[in-house]
Amino acid sequence: MILFENARVFDGVNADCAEGMSLLIENDVIREVSDRPIKADNAQRIDLAGKTLMPGLIDLHIHAYFSDLNAKLVDSRDAPYRTAHAVRKLGHALDCGFTSVRDIGGGDYPLAAAIHDKLIRAPRFFYAGKVLSMTGGHVDYRLPGERHHTQGYCSCGSMNWGGVVVDGVDECIKAAREELRRGAHCIKIVASGGVMSPSDPMWMNQFREDETRAIVNECVERRTYVSAHCHPVSAIRRSVDFGVRCIEHATLIDAETAQFVAERGVYVVPTMSVIFVTMDVGAALGMTPDSMGKLKIAADSALEGLQHMRDAGVKMGYGTDLLGPTYDQQCREFEFRRDIFTPLELLRQATSIGAEILMQEDKLGCIKPGAFADLIVVDGDPLRDIGLLAANGEKLDLIMRAGEIVKDRLS
After folding, report:
1. 21 lies in the same domain as 100
2. Which of 48, 140, 226, 273 could join 7 in a cystine, given CB atoms 3.0 to 4.6 angstroms apart?
3. Any idea where the Amidohydrolase-related domain is (predicted)?
């Protein structure tokens, strides 16, 4: 058992932090929270000296295996290289205070099992499996001159590391069922064009209504949800109409569509980091002029879209989507959003709202008895200075993941 004493507690929701709190951790859960001393004779005692104790951070949009900005190169380097990158990336995330991540394309059961068995240091790991894409969609990585793809489930071919190409209701159903069988937390579809794909413009809507609804239905039957990659308003509106629960990016959203999303209770995970970090380094890292041009379109609208969603009351989670060597900029999402949101809003996005999106309310993103003991101790007040969480873990005196202390400058 571990007993935290004299803590200032941010619970993931409330601006008023309770002072002088005690928390008892037993195994991997919070057993007791009290404003009085807790009697626990055999516990390891840690005096927080009034520092802020809060839920661990949640990044809802990562790709652990995405080891290069060029998705085809990621494929050609094969699993050992991708896994080595994932180990480095996930360890860095944990050291920055991210105790949970959602891999929203490419993550798989073997990586999740390695994390569960403590073969690697990593946050709690939720994964969507392979992204579902239509032919010519955002995760069909073939160049226009290539004729055949090998992104299906046939074991005799080289499978696209991040996605599977499916067309028609039957193929969509089979792919969704296969990824759920493999332990996927949710299913991700690409509902519009994207920046990195070679043959689809960003404005292009993807998947028919019957295909999307078929995938949504499979997830509903599994008591989970569909998340959709969307840039333009047309794709966002279609996805919401067809039953999608969470929108990724929403880069080109306008005020009217933001209100539409909010009224229907759909979540959004914006990703500012991948836009602005890649704008700075993308050309040097080999991004094509076409992709850089599409990235510029996203950058010109991204912050305005955040403002539209804030004004409408859209519930937003924290996501980064950083690719290749840019993984170490994960904490900068706080910086990119800080001109739009208050520190309290940002803290909620990275904790309690993230837990809602993961369908892990009362377990993650909160501090209460019965919740998982995923906690960080901040040297300072993040409700006043959100930059404390943007310092790559340097301002974190303690990090606990599933009741295990993985960083400790206090004992």
Report:
1. no
2. 48
3. 52-404
| Residue 156 domain boundaries | 58-357
CATH number of the domain at 197, please. 3.20.20.140
Please say whether the dihedral angle defined by the alpha carbons of residues 89, 91, 97 and 100, taken in this order, is positive or negative.
positive
User: Over the range 100-112, which residues count as b (16 or more CB within 10 Å of their CB) and which as e?
Assistant: bbbbbbbbbeebb
225 and 291 belong to one structural domain: yes
pLDDT tens digit at each of 411 positions of the chain: 999 999 999 999 999 999 999 999 999 999 999 999 999 989 999 999 999 999 999 999 999 999 998 888 898 888 999 999 999 999 999 999 999 999 999 999 999 999 999 999 999 999 999 999 998 899 887 777 776 655 555 433 334 788 999 999 999 999 999 999 999 999 999 999 988 777 788 899 999 999 999 999 999 999 999 999 999 999 999 999 999 999 999 999 999 999 999 999 999 999 999 999 998 998 888 888 888 888 888 888 999 999 999 999 999 999 999 999 999 999 999 999 999 999 999 999 999 999 999 999 999 999 999 999 999 999 999 999 999 999 999 999 999 999 999 999 998
Cβ atoms of residues 286 and 324 within 8 Å: no
CA distance 204 to 16: 45
Q: How many domains does the chain have?
A: 2
User: Both 125 and 218 in a single domain?
Assistant: yes
Shared domain check, 303 and 315: yes
Q: Are 176 and 188 in contact (CB under 8 A)?
A: no
Whether residue 305 sits in one domain with residue 242: yes
How far is it, in rounded angstroms, from Cα 195 to Cα 387?
29
- Is 373 in a helix, a strand, or coil? coil
Look-up: residue for tokens 């909010």? 262
Specify whether 353 is located in the same domain as 382: no
Is pTM beyond 0.70? Reply is yes
